[in-house]
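#help-structures
NK: newbie question, is this the right format to request a structure? protein is Alcaligin biosynthesis protein
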Amino acid sequence: MSTIYDYIGIGLGPFNLSLACLLQPLPNTRGVFLDQRSEFNWHPGLMLDDAHLQTPFMSDLVTLADPTHPLSFLNYAKQQGKLYSFYIREDFFLLRKEYNQYCRWAIEQLDNVAFNQRVSEVHYSEQEQCYLVHCEQLEQGNVTAHSVLKAKKIIVGTGPAPHWPANAQASERCSHASGYLYRKQHIQQAKRITLVGGGQSAAEIYYDLLQDIHQYGYELHWLTRSPRFFPLEYSKLTLEMTSPEYVDYFHALPAEQRDQLIQQQKNLYKGINQSLINDIFDLLYRLRLEAPVNTRLLTHSRLEQVFESADQLRLRCQHTELNQSFEVATDQLILATGYARQWPEFLQPVHARICWDQQGRPDVQRNYSIDVQGNEIFVQNLELNTHGFVTPDLGMACYRNSWLVRAITGVEHYPIEQRIAFQDFTIPSDWQLPAHNNAAEKECSA
């Protein structure tokens, strides 16, 4: 009889990697995390030299679950002989390259991960009461073998896919920000470069290209549909919204209200580091002392359509505040338009075992499960509409994974915080009015 694992994780980004680290030392727990890539590399197309994480170093793979865990960033720095340099540097925010190196180091210590394994289908066996995970072994992109693994629980962490707005498609003239560094030299040969998007990646790319604008002599334009270049909200009481209490509060709201809140809270998780905004302004100021800077920055600008001809792109845009259309001609278009949730096709065979909301989205329960049993299929970074803007936050990975460890093992190996915020997000129980008082007030107002 083949082995039935306690868990199988599908996808190995930072969230599932964190879970792999937390599960590895636990006794009597067997499982594996599968990834179709040949190695871990986190957003390699955006691995700019000066790019930082937007969360402090304690949001590493394990520290907020277990500060004594051997796979913490601080232990990594110690093992690499970099701890004192990190201490002297006095910067809580890791370079993105540094974080990537740390994750790769952690993987080297794990025996519950497997690369070059593409999951094609997941089925459920009523007879064996477990999930059957169909895998394709890859070698340089080619399938060399097939296998079926069995598990009691599945954790899906395959990540989002680049979002392409309007009718834009990848071409020699049009690319997504996720592949920026692979195309940078080609892009800089153009006479006109246009960047669309208003988040951190857009700002990092604009700043990177702006530094060479006089050397190459290109035009560089930055459009965003946002009403301004929003800084990431980073005040301490706002950060308390990345807390267990706020997740509880948000999850209990009606679905329609949650959707409205997510739209209102974009600058809480999609904003630009304020220091980078300042760096961009300062660089523009310095460059203008040398020569006119051939650049334009325009807000309220929604990309409606992309027209491609042999020698250029034409971008049809709408100024949402003026309610006017306009057109931009460009030679290179970079779309820093973020990522969209990508529902894994390999889960189609177990569609009937999954809970869905009225809009056809997986209805993620408070414990991050999506199956009708509420304790078999779990998701990472697919619960934005149910758990709120903390979903993609690296700082909440250990909290979510502590829940998942408990669900997988039945034991709370890592203490799960219940209350960490000074503020309340719902009405305190001793302030609430009896239901009949509220009803009477509504009657009077009518």
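mod (FA): yep, format's fine, and the tokens are attached above. The chain has a mean pLDDT of 95.
NK: thank you!
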